[in-house]
Amino acid sequence: MRKYFGTDGIRRIANTELTPELVYKVAKAGAYVLSKHTNKAPTILIGRDTRISGTLIESAMVAGFLSYGANVKLLGVMPTPAVAYLTRKLKADAGVVISASHNTYEFNGVKYFSNKGTKISDSLEEEIEEVMESGKLDELTAIKDKIGVSEYSMDLIEEYVYFFRKTFDDNLEKYLRDDFIVGIDTANGATYKVAEKVFKTLGIKYKIINNNPNGININDGCGSTHLEKIKQFVIENKLSLGIAYDGDGDRCLAVDENGEEIDGDKILAIISKMLKRKGKLNKNTIVATVMSNLGLNKYTKENDLQFYQTQVGDRYVLEKMLQEGYNLGGEQSGHVILLDYNPTGDGILTSLMLIQAILEEDKKTSELSNIIKLYPQTLVNAKVNSDKKYAYKEDIDIKNAIEELEKEFDGNGRVLIRPSGTEPLVRVMLEGENQEYITKKATEIAKLIEAKLN
Q1: What is the pTM of this model?
Q2: Domain end position, chosen among 369, 402, 428
Q3: Where in the sequence is the domain holding 87, given as residue range(s)?
Q4: Whether residue 36 is found in the same domain as residue 132
């Protein structure tokens, strides 16, 4: 069991739980583990989002790296996917993102990327923790001319902008229209400057909101976790499309011209249709998680596509894509991976792919998003004895209740039972055609699980 790293790096309350002392240790141990197979002083890129604690955590991180003898390039405020892209492009030894993604401002986090631009593996995180706990950190100290140096490299953001220009300039130029205007919500986060640079460079007409970070307003009632503002903004300004990023810029959700939500499942369907038409959808396959909507599954069957579902987490989606050579995958949350371009979710990249698909089809956004019918979903948590979280699989009454309901759905509904990884809970997720009915049934199954597993 890992002590510090969770499913997406380390994420805690800044300065009390994620202290400078802890960050220093994570940096020093990380530099050692990530560079022990190289014969040179490692170079590490650091990017951060707009949280007030960002420079505090950054300073401790830099001190840890330099103390070991690693050299650092400081990217400043930079989306997570930009750090991943630049780490790979510049052949750096590693990249680090200081961010707590979609969480509120008091949280912050540390996430490592390998020299290939992918999140480091569970085993590497465990190795870093072992070094942190071993008592050997003081031995990993550079002396004299071996001490590392840091430099500010904020201008590298232009490399990221150029990546979008070379990818989309020719594709979009012939389809752009004067009446196609996009609303952008940057969540007062890491995309607040670069998104505008990209849209200007590509000549896409836009109006932007929540792009004035003050250190504490990141994700505050805005961005991909709070779509109300972009919905209202699109309707009031009669825009063609609304785009919302999360705090660190690796997710993107959208709304159509009527303010109706386009979630990650719909985005995957829209992009897959375009890629398939161009012969660019590898093995005609979409990879998603078990939480993806039944509607996406049905869409793939109706359109002669393969559909593979992994356990929850974008790292598992990416793992499957790399193993099998697929190039499109993602989650409902808007974390979409386009592996031909970047090995991590990239909100700006996703939004531009969506824009390209809409323009090439020459349809309203609402018409295009209707290619997939989403089924109502409901999620009810059952509180159970922590030692019995997985016992639902053996309990005959619980198994019978699930099987009866699945028979009743007859392919037009789904039951997913998933124990929480961190809490004494079993999550009961149902999909079906009637919201009221599935909520009632999910509650019944949750109560049965509570009665049997406590």
Answers
A1: 0.93
A2: 369
A3: 10-152
A4: yes
Give the per-residue pLDDT at 8.
Answer: 81
Residue-wise pLDDT tens digits, 263-295: 999 999 999 999 999 999 999 999 999 999 999
Q: Among 164, 336, 318, 160, which Cα is nearest to 246's?
A: 336
What is the DSSP track for 248-284?
TSS-EEEE-TTS-EE-HHHHHHHHHHHHHHTT-SGGG
Residue 416 · residue 429 · CB < 8 Å: yes
N- to C-terminal Cα separation, the chain: 24
DSSP 14: B
Interatomic CA distance for residues 102 and 100, integer angstroms: 6
Does the active-site annotation cover 101?
A: yes
Across residues 165-186, what is the average pLDDT?
94
Catalytic residue among 35, 53, 67, 101: 101
Q: For residues 80 and 82, what is the distance between their CA atoms, to the nearest angstrom?
A: 5
Summarised one tens digit per residue, pLDDT across range 64-87 is 999 999 999 999 999 999 999 999
Tokens 């053996």 sit at which residue?
Answer: 394
Q: How many helices (H) does the chain have, and how many strands (E)?
A: 14, 18
